[in-house]
């Protein structure tokens, strides 16, 4: 018995040692220029961190309001200098990695995050994208952080690191698409005839756009919404969004919640019979995570659920996204970026008319396709 336990312990030890060696060997795949970049970056970030930490200590005994005022002054002055420095390092990262293959990006990204991990720990946003507690980077909590765009952190340095990813064009694009989809929903409702209006959000997340879309509407009796997400926690947040809107406005919204996945969508034979038919279907972020074959199949299944004349809109980050390197290396947030042609190709077999349009940063594009009227 003792011998058996001993062997098991040595097996665990040997496995751990083997995995350790695999991790250490990763650095052999990293080019020297990138190692130098990472070393210089960590040195400079440590210098900035010490500078801001020293300021935090100096203001520690000040009354709360005075301390907050001083912090705000520093964030607006020295903080801006830091942001400019950080942006320059991100641009340098982008330049160094622009011609990397997928394998090279993975190897260099793994190495990079090992170097900057202690800094990532200071940013609630960066930490969540890296740890992925819901199994993926762009979860409902991430969306909430981007939408709310609030500075968080226990120190000046933490606040600065947390705020950077919330200010980049990609984050602005996420906020823009929420407003744009809300406008699209309102327009679709206003242009609809007297029959009931049915809409569906796929991978709905927190569904904040519903509050924005219906905030000024009085007559909602004929509006029916279906919210689909594989994450039950996301649906609970969406329920809270709807309940809060109903309480604030004294209205009632017909909402159906479906806790299901893309896998089910592709498996269910009679999708319109099970989930329904809709005048408006949209998905803002799902397609960023789908391979071309899966994206094409999902788009076709969504199209099946359109009523005659119905509209389908899906979003996807464009290949011109200037924050791609930052997202992949700092946030471990990897998306399928597409061109307009690649996006239109997904809908090439559908009978409806399709077009591409962008939100104002140009990071996020949308494919819109309409079902024939009969």
From TrEMBL:
The keyword Zinc-finger does not apply. One of its GO terms (molecular function) is methyltransferase activity. Keywords: Methyltransferase, Transferase. Gene3D superfamilies: Vaccinia Virus protein VP39. InterPro entries: Methyltransf_25 (IPR041698), SAM-dependent_MTases_sf (IPR029063). It holds the Pfam family Methyltransf_25. This is Methyltransferase domain protein. It comes from Leptospira borgpetersenii serovar Hardjo-bovis str. Sponselee.
